[in-house]
Amino acid sequence: MKFKLFFSIAVTALLAMSCGPKATTPKPPVAKKIAKELTIHGDTRIDNYYWMNQREDTAVINYLKAENSYTDAMMKHTEEFQTKLFDEMIARIKKTDESVPAKSNGFYYYSRTEGDAEYSLYCRKEGSLDAEEQIILNVPEMAKGYSFFSIGDYSVSENNKILAYSEDTLSRRRYTIKFKSLVDDKIYADEIVNTTGGITWASDNKTVFYTVKHPETLLPYKVLKHVLGTPVEKDELVYEEKDNTFYTFCYKTKSRKYIIIGSTSTLSAEYRYIDASKPNSEFSIFQPREKDLEYSIDHFKGDFYIRTNYQAKNFSLMKTPVTKTTKENWMEVIPNRDDVYLSNFEIFENYLVVGERKNGLNQLRIRRWADNEEHYLDFGEETYDAWISTNPEFETDVLRYGYTSLTTPSSTIDYNMATKVKTVMKQQEVVGDFDKSNYEAKRIWATAEDGTKVPVSLVYRKDKFKKGTNPLWLSAYGSYGSSSDVYFSSVRLSLLDRGFVVATAHVRGGQEMGRYWYEDGKLLKKKNTFTDFNSCAEYMVAEGYAAKDKVFAWGGSAGGLLMGAICNMRPDLYRGVIAAVPFVDVVTTMLDESIPLTTGEFDEWGNPKNKEYYDYMLSYSPYDNVEAEDYPAMLVTTGLHDSQVQYWEPAKWVAKLRDMKTDHNPLLIKINMDFGHGGASGRFERYHEVALEYAFVLDLVGITK
After folding, report:
1. Contact, 511 vs 517, CB < 8 A?
2. Superkingdom of this entry's organism (predicted)?
């Protein structure tokens, strides 16, 4: 009976869009309400759309297809424009291209693309860039027959003869590890399923360590050891994480001497290690886990180097002998500073490179081991991003780093730390008539509700900017301490060249301004993320960077939660909102420990089994706070196979919004039935969704070409 009921709902919705006297005026699907009572702490919530969480139910699938058909019908008048946008986006991309080779263990590794191929070739050359090319992974061939295909990781054995690689063909981030001979290209029979994709070789050229996912929650929770040529079902369990608020992983130190197993939660970490040449030895604990103690490790010569928050709010760099690894032995290398956040580090034979963040911008600090002489790199722009790139070897004075800004295409730069000479090895080529001098980037500071200054990075085309009249595309993330660093996008030119100002609000919940910036936007301070964003939007209008009636907001995943929250809090501020794979059903998801990622995120959002956190989450959860009021025009996207934010969250949210909102603005949802959290896997294919998003907002401001 239930199946027939749901099926009739979906069919009715489809018929409504294709039949009747006004086929040009599509009617949205109307989701059936089946009340589900959810009670905790003496509080009962009624969820009328709880039934949508049955991924395998044909009726649910039909309902999602009905939503897609409605979106297609509503956007049909923009189809030609979407095609034009897509064509111009990919026309700017250099089709035949190659990455900068990186040397590792005697070989130069790189990837390259050919023509219209959606996927890259992974290649290497032995000893010299003039040597003969060896294609180690022909991904265009491997991807044939799949609607989605992704290489998770690849790793070469110490003797350079065997390639281990992982692939995902469903978009659930459950990777299968395979092995290939680099001598004769034969594929080994060994296949390891349901892994995170990471692969760590021991030094014996036959043993690999890998991490598997929990069959229900998909959390990485076991590390196993596989010996090539032996039955996978007999692989030895070397570590199992019993605490479901932690996830585990494995890697090899840069020195290639140690294999490391890490277990981390949001606010705690624990590592284990063995000699890479002794894969059958017992792992030793580096420093036992403690609440609120975070650290990560690498190895150089006789010491382990530790990035940690131990007695260091903004993190410090410490070291300890390999024979004495617990925290009482740690010695300070770079101290904590209140105004500088230490984000990462890279060790070379003669130099230490430290990634830092100050005033919201990344810095690269270089220190010579011999005399501690140090200097910073100068990047010369008001707003930018710079990062330590791939540096697999110790014995070099050349640091490879990456650089980009809102007007400077992504660049790979080699910097000689001894001579202080920079060499641009590659800069992203923008095909066509792009001229960076046509665009202006700025960094401004909005004032939040509590007086905090919030940085905003923005860019516009100079000849299209007229104060107070431009449409604005404002985005943010603001969770997990993940900083929204600026970057160049050739795709973004399709907005800028049509008069949009494009901006990123560096709201609290990220880590742009240091550790306190993160802590002021999480748990019981989460609402700062949302009010910061609204303040940034208001400030940009007040300062003339946007027309009051042309403000558009975009956010994805936890940034989609932000979109849902601002729609409830200040719907009047926005002409339109795009929420990509949005985390909007916060309370129900965080109460369901069978859902991937839930238990590992209690330190981020709080555990709603605690009434204080339940009440606070309930006060901002987008799904729970939908009201009978006017909302902006909205486009929501999701993927059926999303393992991070389940498709039913945005589907339920849209159904509830459609039932309750009092306006006539478009409310659309696009469900990708083939992909997951990251969208399409092909390098061009993914831009179809971007073209849809751009067409949606451009249409709302009357730009149709």
Report:
1. yes
2. Bacteria
| Residue 456 φ/ψ, nearest 5 degrees | -130, 130
Q: Give CA–CA dist 603/516, Å, rounded.
A: 15
Which is it for the CA torsion 219, 221, 222, 228, positive or negative?
positive
pTM of this structure: 0.87
Rounded (10°) CA dihedral 305, 308, 312, 313:
150
User: Of the ranges 167-171, 346-350, 496-500, which one carries the lowest mean pLDDT score?
Assistant: 167-171
Helix (DSSP H) and strand (DSSP E) numbers for the chain: 13, 39
Helices (H), 46-120: 58-74, 79-91
C-alpha 536/C-alpha 356 separation (Å) is 25
pLDDT at 683 exceeding the cut of 90:
no
Q: What is the mean pLDDT of residues 90-100?
A: 93
d(CA 85, CA 287): 53
Q: Are 546 and 520 in contact (CB under 8 A)?
A: no
d(CA 563, CA 577): 7
Residue 679 confidence (pLDDT) above 80: no
pLDDT, residue 644, reads 67
Asked if residue 51 has pLDDT above 80, the reply is yes
Q: Do the beta carbons of residue 511 and residue 344 sit within 8 Å? A: no
Q: Which of 365-374, 401-410, 681-690 has the weakest average pLDDT?
A: 681-690
Our CA angle for 195, 197, 203, nearest 5°, is 105
Determine whether 408 is exposed, middle or buried from the number of CB atoms within 10 Å of its CB (0-12, 13-18, 19+): buried
Q: How far apart are CA 198 and CA 173, in angstroms?
A: 11
Decide: 69 and 14 in contact? Cβ < 8 Å.
Answer: yes
**Domain 42-90+433-700: assigned CATH number:** 3.40.50.1820
Provide the pLDDT for residue 23.
47
Query: Strand locations in 202-329, DSSP E?
Result: 207-213, 220-227, 236-240, 247-252, 258-264, 269-275, 284-285, 295-300, 303-308, 316-321
CATH superfamily placement of domain 146-293: Prolyl oligopeptidase, N-terminal domain (2.130.10.120)
**Residue 682 confidence class, pLDDT cut points 50, 70, 90:** low
Q: Which two tokens stand for residue 561?
A: 């939660």
Listed by start position, the domains of the chain span: 42-90+433-700, 146-293
Task: Kindly report the average pLDDT of the chain as a whole number.
Answer: 92
Going by their DSSP bridges, the two strands 551-556 and 472-475 should be labelled as parallel
Query: 51: which 2 tokens?
Result: 């039934």
CA 500 – CA 492 distance, rounded (Å): 10
Beta strands in 546-677 (DSSP E): 551-556, 576-580, 633-639, 667-672
Residue with tokens 């849809």: 692
Give pLDDT, residue 55. Answer: 83
Q: Integer distance in angstroms from the first to the last C-alpha of the chain?
A: 49
The predicted pLDDT at position 645 comes to 80
Q: So which residues are the catalytic ones?
A: 557, 642, 677
Residues with Cβ within 8 Å of residue 407, at least 6 apart in sequence:
381, 436, 439, 440, 441, 459, 488
Which residue bears the tokens 């560096």? 506
